[in-house]
Write a structure and sequence with these properties.
By secondary structure, this protein is an alpha/beta fold. It contains 7 helices and 5 strands; from the N terminus they run αβαβαβαβαβαα. It has a 5-stranded parallel beta sheet, with helices on both faces.
Length: 206
């Protein structure tokens, strides 16, 4: 009614748009940053021409189909990428790939979703498994604006799963151009060598 009163009893306050998950994300990010897990000197270079690529992601998602389409033959290590059991599976697959040396490059990630959907890649177990990996790791999680803890720790961060596949291997046109350049240089070097031998032969004949 007019001039009436309404009373609220507030038991907790948090910034609008941010919740417990975001706070946990920032706390873990600060902790791992202080430990040096994001430091550039720990980043491993990606192989220029990887022979074996291990893809650690959901075997049923659209992301895996995109990456297979771009990369062709790869080793898919299916794991859950969402839910309480996902972090342990992802971390376990990374450790397994390293223990048995199944590939010379790892791509791990999933398609887009909410912060809850992507949360497995904000897990400390996954971050430490990526950091400990002797095999270079590309993190390819969500859409371009999505940034996870895995992205900070990985050797290379891809904007999307498809972008991760594109980063992993060189463009065919670039490889053809390189081969053509090498062919030309090899031909020129061989012609110079033959010319030098011909001159030497003429000198000896004389």
């Amino acid at each position: 009614p007019r001039d009436g009163a309404y009373q609220l009893y507030v038991t907790a306050v948090q910034p609008e748009g941010l919740g417990d998950l975001y706070a946990a994300y920032e706390q873990l990010k600060a902790k791992l940053l202080a430990e040096g897990l994001f430091a550039q000197e720990h980043k491993k270079p990606l192989p220029a021409m990887p022979e074996k690529i291990a893809l650690i992601t959901s075997g049923a998602g659209a992301a895996v189909q995109d990456m297979i389409r771009i990369l062709g033959r790869i080793l898919v290590m299916p794991v859950r990428v969402q839910g309480t059991e996902a972090p342990a599976e992802i971390a376990g697959a990374i450790r397994y790939a390293n223990r048995w040396n199944v590939a010379d490059l790892i791509i791990t990630g999933r398609g887009g979703g909410s912060i809850e959907d992507l949360w497995a890649f904000n897990d400390e177990r996954v971050a430490r498994a990526i950091f400990a990996s002797e095999i270079p790791v590309i993190s390819a999680v969500g859409h371009e604006p999505d940034v996870t803890i895995a992205d900070f720790v990985a050797d290379v961060r891809a904007a999307t799963p498809s972008n991760g596949a594109e980063i992993a291997v060189p463009e065919q046109a670039d490889v053809r151009a390189l081969l053509l350049s090498l062919e030309n240089r090899l031909g020129q070097a061989e012609r110079k060598r033959l010319d030098a031998l011909a001159s030497r032969l003429n000198e000896l004949s004389a």
